[in-house]
Design goal:
By secondary structure, this protein is mostly helical. The chain has 10 helices and no strands.
């Protein structure tokens, strides 16, 4: 059995769902919400003035949300949250599959070395990361083109590329939890906890 093909096939539906979610969040925030913020600047400034600076900083509103670069910085936090949860779920699902099914002995009975099995699973996860990062790139650049702001497409593409780094970090966290947890009953709850935990750690300095 080809471990890479098997794991990639098992994650296909999850990958498609995650791609749609990340693309939808990027388009809604950057292409739909940003023009509203930009056009209603006076009202939004009055609303934000009622909140303490630390609260605004924690939720990514400390930047100038009335420029595309500033609003992209605000949106990036929530895009990163979606990517983090998705990548954590892949690491947990792929590397914890046998643990959840209580069939670890099946892997040991396969005619393949442990490094080969690990490499096949890791390759499947990395393909998912590359595909999701590519979709996020297209969604962010496409939103930039719709808004037509005076920001270079190279800067937008480079910033969106950072989501791939976020995905790799949380993929590694999911892998570590899956490999060392004694009991791994579910994926969605743990992945969400890892993603939200990262969000909270980001907000703590503010």
């Amino acid at each position: 059995m080809n471990v890479f093909a098997f794991e990639l096939r098992r994650q296909a539906r999850s990958l498609l769902t995650d791609c749609l979610i990340v693309a939808a969040v990027a388009i809604v925030l950057l292409a739909a919400c940003y023009p509203v913020y930009h056009d209603a600047r006076d009202q939004v400034e009055g609303l934000l003035a009622a909140y303490p600076p630390a609260f605004l900083e924690a939720f990514g509103l400390g930047a100038d949300v009335f420029s595309f670069a500033g609003f992209f910085q605000f949106s990036y936090l929530y895009l990163a949250l979606c990517v983090a949860i998705a990548a954590s779920a892949w690491g947990l699902a792929v590397f914890g599959r046998e643990s959840r099914s209580r069939c670890e002995s099946f892997l040991l009975a396969m005619p393949a070395s442990r490094p080969a099995l690990f490499a096949g699973k890791l390759a499947a996860c990395l393909v998912c990361v590359v595909v999701l990062t590519g979709v996020a790139e297209l969604a962010c650049v496409g939103s930039w083109a719709l808004v037509d702001e005076d920001v270079s497409v190279g800067r937008v593409a480079l910033a969106a590329l950072g989501l791939g780094g976020v995905a790799l970090v949380f993929l590694a966290l999911g892998m570590v939890v899956a490999c060392f947890a004694r009991r791994l009953r579910g994926v969605a709850g743990i992945a969400t906890a890892l993603g939200v935990g990262g969000f909270i750690l980001y907000a703590l300095p503010g």
